[in-house]
Amino acid sequence: MRELELTDTEVLEIVENTEVLDLVVFNDDVNTFDHVIETLIRVCRHTPEQAEQCTWIIHYKGKCTVKQGSFAQLRPMRDAICEAGIDARIIG
What we know:
The protein is α+β, with helices and mostly antiparallel strands and 92 residues long. Helices cover 54% and strands 18% of the residues.
């Protein structure tokens, strides 16, 4: 069996494309619990229980990872959460 030879750039691209990132939502003094819960259910496909638990963590800890995945998977979710007026970032 022949070994596959990859350049450093190709290896970096593979790692970047398969890296698991966190979608983190941050606390604020503007959004209501209900709005955050409804947004997590709609955008992240959380169950009501998951969304409520994440919202309490956001409230008490200041932030919570609400989803994990690749950048391509998380970016549309981050954009939708931000469009709802909630601070969300993708963190590696």
